[in-house]
Amino acid sequence: MKKLAVVSLICFSLCACSSLNEVKLDSQSVSSYIGEKVKVTTISGEQMEFQVESATEQQIEGEGQLVKIEDIQTLEVEEFSPLKSISLSAGLYMLGAIIITIVVL
Predict the structure, then answer these.
(1) CB-based burial of residue 62 (10 Å sphere; 0-12 exposed, 13-18 middle, 19+ buried)?
(2) Which keywords, in A-to-Z order, does the entry hold (predicted)?
């Protein structure tokens, strides 16, 4: 039981947290997002999430989905968040310590 709790804590603490941050299409070339996971909201309100495989000045494509740049209302890029990861790890370690203390007593 103790080993299972410790292994679970280690697995959960190694998970990285990320967040979606809205970017402006003017600020960077669309081709710089190749390989990034993005969330696109179109002018019509449709939302799509995919990893960008190719991009041109006219369109962005990934995982079988194609979106014209002119149809994009918002573009959000997934970014690693070290603060969230550290907070999650610390919280899980504290929870694990409490669980192990309860099991031992």
Answers:
(1) buried
(2) Signal
Contacts of residue 9, Cβ cutoff 8 Å, sequence gap at least 6: 92, 93, 95, 96
Q: Convert the pLDDT of each residue in 49-97 to its tens digit.
A: 999 999 888 899 999 999 998 999 988 888 765 555 566 666 667 777 7
pTM: 0.59
CB 79 within 8 A of CB 21: yes
User: How many whole angstroms separate alpha carbon 47 and alpha carbon 11?
Assistant: 31
Tell me the DSSP string of 37-105: EEEEEETTS-EEEEE--EE-SSEEEETTEEEEGGGEEEEEEEEE-HHHHHHHHHHHHHHHHHHHHHHH-
Task: Name residues whose C-beta falls within 8 Å of residue 75's C-beta, 6 or more positions apart in sequence.
Answer: 22, 23, 25, 33, 38, 39, 40, 41
Chain segment 74-87, per-residue pLDDT in tens: 888 887 655 555 66
